[in-house]
């Protein structure tokens, strides 16, 4: 008759044979999970350090360029600009 250790070995071998088909999918899933965990840890660490500015690529607009569209740049909205 089989003892407990022999039965455990047989179950491990059967599980390994059946899991061979799923192994690439499981490793891919584990890699994705590790990347997500790493990025979340980095985001949490960056949120804890308020002194470091975040750099967002984009276009810099000067204050004089942010008017309402009229030539005066005062932002009063008198209706003398292109919207008129």
Automatic annotation (TrEMBL):
It is found in: Membrane. Pfam families: TatA_B_E. Residues 70-84 have a biased composition (Gly residues). Its main location: membrane. It is a single-pass membrane protein. Keywords: Membrane, Protein transport, Translocation, Transmembrane, Transmembrane helix, Transport. The keyword Transport applies. Residues 37-48 have a biased composition (Basic and acidic residues). It comes from the Bacteria. InterPro entries: TatA/B/E. Residues 31-84 are annotated as: Disordered. This is Twin-arginine translocase TatA/TatE family subunit. It comes from Streptomyces rubrogriseus.
